[in-house]
From TrEMBL:
Residues 177-229 form the HAMP domain. This is histidine kinase. Its main location: membrane. One of its GO terms (molecular function) is phosphorelay sensor kinase activity. Its EC number is 2.7.13.3. It comes from Compostibacillus humi. It is found in: Cell membrane. It is a multi-pass membrane protein.
């Protein structure tokens, strides 16, 4: 069953149940309201009649005349003397009066509903003045008459219910269709992603949570497209990076085998082959490490690491290379700034960035560690020529190399290590004119 049909059935059922319950409650209450209204009318009529008795009919003959007037009224009533427990006048049949006598309905002033067989009467008592006379005028109305009114109301209620149900069904269909249509369009966009038709993806109009889902979908599609292109570029670059040293090794190996080179050229060829094998080994090791960092969480073993001590280790390792190239390393770090990271891998990540700075710097590399709130920040800057704008957006991708780059995997490995530590890394322009890398890591609370 389609989602639109399910929602339509659910909303329609819910609204119909609510309307049915409301109708039932109203139908049940209407009889009570009719009884209360009828009792008020009886009281008003009885009070008028009692006033007539009190004012105009004081002698026995007058009372007899009043009885004649009462008989002419289309009312069910009786005149009862509660002191003598006797009915002086009644418009009801004798057998009904006997039943009421047997049930003590006359003497029980609190009883307002009288029953005779299957028939029910609503009663109203009005005292005839003076009160010590003991006279009461009791008026009665059959509930069956009220039920006829109730049945008439029920027919109208059913008619209104049917009209309301029709409106509910149409409104539910319209609303659910409006709600589901964006999801249906989103489904077709997913089909296009399945077929990798990223250029044919279109924005859909939606609101609320569906818009949030759609926005997440577009972000996912963009990221997936970027990932696919990155994978394609990775395989192309990887094949190129591996093919070049292999071809060099193959060329020298075949030349040595065929005796083309003299002794000096052969030694040179063997040295080149050794260097290329080392380069191949480095590329392969870095590719394996990067793959493990991105796929195997167990490879990363975080612990509490002091950044001041870590930067000291970095400086100690790069100092010989920096001195050889005439590069000065400046570093400063706040005390007691700790992060939760894999010490060896984070050391490698920072080393990659610092070595990158040393390769491109003119005279110096600056390393600074600071903290703000819940985050620690490592800033590495150099005074070289800076990052080429053509590679800036992809500098942390695999095999993206700047001038004098080695494998093109160092910064990709750094990004993977930093992200494993729940941190972020970004690249920009330094105040010294060169490159600037900012590593942000959450401070350890332990």
């Amino acid at each position: 069953m389609k989602l639109q049909t399910q929602l339509s059935v659910a909303f329609t059922t819910l609204l119909l149940v609510v309307m049915a319950l409301v109708s039932y409650v109203v139908y049940s209450l209407i009889l009570d309201l009719l009884i209360q209204d009828e009792r008020r009318q009886l009281e008003q009529t009885g009070e008028i009649l009692v006033d007539i008795i009190n004012q105009q009919y004081s002698t026995p003959r007058d009372v007899e005349q009043f009885y004649e007037i009462l008989r002419e009224q289309d009312l069910q009533m009786l005149l009862y003397n509660h002191r003598q427990d006797v009915v002086l006048f009644s418009t009801l049949p004798t057998e009904i009066l006997q039943i009421f006598y047997q049930r003590n309905d006359f003497s029980d002033a609190s009883k307002q509903i009288w029953e005779y067989g299957k028939e029910t009467f609503v009663t109203s008592r009005i005292t005839v003045l003076p009160e010590n006379s003991g006279l009461e005028l009791i008026l009665l109305t059959s509930v069956d008459d009220l039920r006829q009114v109730q049945q008439s109301f029920l027919l109208r209620l059913i008619f209104v219910f049917l009209i309301g149900a029709s409106i509910v069904v149409l409104l539910t269909h319209y609303l659910t269709r409006k709600l589901v249509t964006p999801l249906t369009l989103l489904k077709w966009q997913l089909k296009r992603i399945e077929k990798r038709q990223f250029n044919h993806i279109e924005q859909i109009k939606a609101t609320g949570e569906i818009k949030e889902v759609a926005d997440s979908f577009y972000e996912m599609a963009s990221e997936l497209e970027r990932y696919i292109h990155a994978q394609q570029a990775f395989f192309q670059n990887a094949s190129h990076e591996l093919k070049t040293p292999l071809m060099t090794i193959q060329g020298y190996a075949e030349g040595i085998r065929d005796g083309i080179f003299d002794e000096e050229e052969m030694k040179k060829g063997l040295e080149v082959m050794v260097q290329e094998v080392k380069r191949l080994k480095k590329i392969i090791n870095e590719m394996i490490l990067l793959a493990k960092l991105e796929s195997e969480r167990a490879v990363y073993e975080p612990e509490k690491v002091n950044l001041e001590s870590l930067i000291t280790l970095v400086v100690d390792r790069v100092m010989p290379i920096a001195s050889e190239k005439g590069i000065t390393i400046y570093h400063q770090a706040e005390n007691n700034v700790n992060v939760f990271a894999d010490k060896d891998k984070m050391l490698r990540a920072i080393l990659n960035v610092v070595m990158n700075g040393i390769r491109h710097a003119a005279t110096k590399v600056d390393i600074a560690v600071s903290s703000a709130g819940t985050e620690a920040e490592i800033i590495i800057e150099d005074d070289g020529k800076g990052i080429d704008e053509t590679v800036k957006a992809h500098i942390f991708h695999r095999f993206v190399k700047g001038k004098n780059g080695e494998t093109g995997l160092g910064l990709a490995i750094t990004r993977a290590i930093v992200e494993q530590s729940n941190g972020k890394i970004s690249a920009g322009h330094s105040k010294y004119g060169g490159a600037k890398f900012i590593i942000t890591l959450p401070i350890s609370k332990e």
